[in-house]
Structure formats: structure tokens, C-alpha cells
Write a structure and sequence with these properties.
five-stranded parallel beta sheet; 305 residues; homodimer; 14 helices
Chain lengths: 305, 305
């Protein structure tokens, strides 16, 4: 593992639940990691763990880096970080590779790749999947697409971050499109799981038994299995927040409308996430959609232990 | 296995994809199986395979049986078969056990159990899950509820048909409720899988690659994994028909409305099954929902090989 990086420098911008773990995985992979977050205390913590000085800005972080991994919330943040005022595109050395990990519409990924090229930079569209724990373990799934040269240059960085690398095509935007298809399904499955669990409670069923039966039956989904324990435990501490899916199903909705493609099931799910956010739970765990159903219908779900 | 039945007689009524396999599993389990279907050629085929005479009616099939397993399409057929004109309730010996396998609303299961009691019969609410192949292997999942006496008496029959027996409570209707929660999820997941796959095609993605990526990602569901190969192969030969889910999500919709519980996601999925049935595909495989999305939006899906 340590031989991957060989002391070469990679910058990581955005040290949230995913980015922090990815930066740590890269450091473990033998890279010199210059990491920056808009929260100075987070930037400092990561630097101190590596015995380094904390970079004072994103531009400072990328100085001397061969790669920059951007792990911010959305396309607009990615754009501001790369190409806005004080953006890192002007501070990166020519030939450096941008690995863009935020979930976004494919057209934004194509737009950023073209802008990167105008700065003499390579761009890899590489949304990620797997959650915070896998990020910390260097065991993410990466949905990568982009020019073969960008893909080849990014290889050691991808290897240090991911257990599974899908190389999906030579054009930026393909990885983004795969991610949006996944998010459509994931969002619908969380909303359906919430609907089904609270419906089961309304029918008087024992919810732990429902979890046991459904996870062994044809009604199971990855999201049901992963998220419904939060409902059973009454624990809505955010692992992934409601607002992530108001955003991602919103992108799906925009893309589908733009393509004149109807998505009635995803649209119903989006409305449930919006209602949950509107009810003040946007920053809570996305299993909070179940609390919305329960609250609307006057049903008691398990509380915290 | 053969010791389970000890030559005792069980009747099976309804020899569709599930019932035929269940009857065969019971025969393999050492039971004398008197099986009947409204299609005389199917009744004859099963009887001949066992070297028996074909019963001329459902009433004839249950004469001398300690158990009757009903595997018909819905609650109304179950009612007609048990308690209608020429129904088997009057032909069964006192103390015989009805194992009712059709998917139905819990209140119908409770109603049938009460009617059975008036005939001196035991009633087990035991919807099944797992598909035709598992039925043939005696490896179904059974969601059973009912009076302890009915549960105990049904035990050898359940053992011969099922790999997994959930004993969910002492009241009929609980098994039915668990099944409806499962069907809510299963139906939503088929509709969402169809929506996502055709959306992916609209985005220009390679569908086999989409299947590979999604089944390894957080967007996966049991139904996506099981049904989407039908879309990849362009094969809509019915394993389970669209009309099953117009029925089952219809029951969910009725139950939820009756309970004043909102199910917007299941309702959107139900509308997609109804559109697919309205377009003439009701008897085709339920993955045909993908063909509806494709047809509406002028997208070509893979054809048959």
C-alpha cells in the first residue's frame, strides 16, 4: 500500500465524512497529503495527525500537488473551488489531474473537464459510493470516466482510495450518469422503506420482526437493510442526511425533465424527502423520512434507547 | 423427508406455477397428494405423475384429506373455493386444517378463519414467497399466523413445502399483513428498477454495465437483481405477471386508504403497473414496466436474442 504514493503529493479539498477518510487512506497509501477544508479546525486536525503544517487555503494545498481530489457537496461548490475566485485551477501545475468526486449532472462534469483542459489540466469524472466507513478504509467504489490519459495518471490515487474501480468510458459525464442512476434507486428505496415500515407499524406489526422477514424476502433492498436499523433504534444521527437526497433526486428530476423522460416513482420519493426537510429534518439522517410518515399519521416509532 | 407425510393425505387446490411445485414437494415429502386445478389437463398431469386417479372436483380432492392447501390467485377465489357453491369447507372432515396461501388483505384472512371455525375447521394464514423454482424445491418462505392448534397441525405440511417458516403470531391476518408490506416494497422496487434502467438507456449508458454497477452498489434491490436480466435479454415470458402487482399494490392501496395512511411512493408504482397493463402487457412478465417507460419515451430496449 505505502508504495502507491511514493511520497508524491496529492491535495484533497473537502474534509467531510467522505473526504476526511479518503485523505487518511491516501496518507496510508504513502502519499504526501495536503488537505484543506473551509473549517480551519478540521484542516488543522488532519495536518496535525500527519505532522504537517496546515495549508492556509485551497490554493496553498494544491501547490506542488500532482493530483487534487475534490470532495465537496455539489457541482456549484466544485465549480467555485476549481474555477471561481481563488480557485485552484490557476494554482495547479500543468498536467496535474483533477479527480472530481461530488455527485452532479453529467453535463456539469463535461463542462468542468472542458474548463480544466483550458487550464492545461486533466480531469477525471469519478463519483464515489460506499459511505464514510469505506472511505476511511480505502475501500470505496469509484465510478470513473474520462480521457485515457487522465484515467492512467489517476490510477495510483484511485487504488489508494477504492476497493472497486469501474472504468466506465473515455468521456467525462459517464461516471456522473451512472451515479445519478444509482441515486435514483437509492432515494426511492429509502422512501419506500420508510413508507413500508410505518405502514407495518400502522398494521400493528412488530418492527424488528418486519426487519427480519423483509431482509430475508423479495422486498429487500440495500437501503432497507442499511437504513431501517436507524428507525428500529430511534437513532437519526446523520450518517447521510435528508438534504443529500433532496439534492440528488432534485438533480435526477432536472435531468429527466431536460431529457423529456418521465420519472413518476422518483418524483414521489423526492416529494417525501422535501416534506421531511420542510418539517425541519433536512440535516438529520435520511431514515427520517420514516419520522415524517409517522408524524403525518400520528404513529409512534421507537424512540432512542 | 418422506417420513414427514407418512402416507397421510393432503389436498392442494390451484396448480399454477406455485401450487404445482408445492404439490410435488408434498408428494416428495411422503404425503398422498390429491391435487385439483380448474384446468382438467393440469389436474390429470399431476395425478398421472403420481400414478393416481385425477379428482373430478375440488370437493372430491379434499375427501379424506387432513389438510387442504389453497394456492389460488386472490381472496375472492379463496372465498369461492372454500365457502362458495360447491366449496370444500362442507366436504372437509372436522378438524381438518386449511392452509391459505393466496396474497390478501389481513381482514379477509380473519374473515375466512372465522368462517372456517364455523365449519369446525382450523385455518392457517400462510402466504408464501420465493417463486416457482423454490416452490418446486420445497424451499419456499412461509409467513404463517393463526391459532396455535392450527399452526401445530400444519407443521408437517409446512416443513415439506418451505425452507423458512416464520411463525408470526396467534391471529390470522398477521401473516397476510407481513406479505402486504413485502409486496409494497417488491412492487415499488420493480417499478423503480424499470424507471432507472430506461432512464440509464436514455442517458446513453450500456445497460449490462448498469446492471453490473448497480447490483454492486447501494442502489441495489432483490427485485432489481432478479428482474432486470429479463430487460437485458428482452425476454418478457411471464415468471410473475404485471397483473399480480396491479392486484397486490391495489390491495396495499385499499388497505392504506382504509387505515388513512398515505402511500405516495407505492401509489406511483401502482400507476406504472396499471399503465403497463392498460398497454396490453398485463399477462407478461412484470419487468414489462420497463417496456412501458421505453414505449412512452421512444427508447429502444434490447430485443429477444
Amino acid at each position: 500500500m505505502e508504495t502507491l504514493g511514493q511520497g508524491r503529493t496529492v491535495a484533497v479539498i473537502g474534509l467531510g465524512a467522505m473526504g476526511y477518510g479518503m485523505a487518511a487512506s491516501l496518507r496510508r497509501g504513502g502519499f504526501t497529503v495536503a488537505a484543506f477544508d473551509v473549517r480551519p479546525e478540521v484542516t488543522r486536525r488532519f495536518a496535525e495527525e500527519g505532522g504537517m503544517a496546515a495549508p492556509p487555503s485551497a490554493q496553498a494545498a494544491v501547490a506542488g500537488a500532482e493530483w487534487v481530489v475534490t470532495v465537496v457537496v455539489n457541482a456549484d461548490q466544485t465549480h467555485a473551488l476549481l474555477f471561481g475566485e481563488g480557485g485552484v485551477a490557476t494554482a495547479l501545475q500543468p498536467g496535474a489531474v483533477i479527480l472530481s468526486c461530488a455527485t452532479m449532472a453529467p453535463e456539469r462534469a463535461r463542462e468542468f473537464a472542458a474548463a480544466a483542459a483550458r487550464h492545461g489540466l486533466a480531469y477525471l469524472d469519478c463519483p464515489i459510493s460506499g459511505g464514510a466507513q469505506r472511505a476511511a478504509e480505502g475501500a470505496l467504489t469509484v465510478l470513473a470516466s474520462g480521457a485515457p490519459e487522465a484515467m492512467a495518471k489517476a490510477e495510483p490515487v484511485l487504488q489508494a482510495m477504492a476497493a472497486k474501480i469501474y472504468r466506465l468510458g473515455d468521456e467525462p459525464g459517464i461516471g456522473a450518469a451512472f451515479k445519478m442512476v444509482n441515486q435514483l434507486l437509492a432515494g426511492v428505496h429509502i422512501a419506500a422503506a420508510s413508507e413500508a415500515m410505518v405502514f407495518a407499524k400502522r398494521l400493528g406489526l412488530d418492527l424488528r420482526r418486519v426487519y427480519e422477514v423483509i431482509t430475508a424476502s423479495a422486498g429487500n433492498s440495500w437501503m432497507f437493510e442499511n437504513r431501517m436499523p436507524h428507525v428500529l433504534d430511534g437513532d437519526y444521527t446523520p450518517r447521510s442526511a435528508v438534504d443529500i437526497f433532496t439534492k440528488d433526486l432534485g438533480i435526477v428530476s432536472d435531468m429527466a425533465r431536460g431529457a423529456k423522460f418521465p420519472t413518476p416513482v422518483a418524483s414521489a420519493a423526492l416529494q417525501m424527502f422535501l416534506m421531511t426537510a420542510a418539517a425541519g429534518m433536512g440535516r438529520d439522517d435520511d431514515a427520517s423520512v420514516a419520522r415524517l410518515y409517522a408524524s403525518v399519521s400520528g404513529i409512534d416509532l421507537p424512540g432512542p434507547p
